[in-house]
Amino acid sequence: MSLVNKKIIALVSADFEDLELWYPIYRLREAGAIVDLVGEETNKEYIGKYGVPAVSTFSFSEIKKEEYDGILVPGGWSPDKLRRFPEVIDLITYFNEQKKPIGQICHAGWVLISAGILKGVNVTSTPGIKDDMTNAGAIWHDVPAITDGHIISSRRPPDLPEYMKHYIAAFEG
Question: Once rounded to an integer, what is the mean pLDDT over residues 94-98?
Answer without folding.
Answer: 98
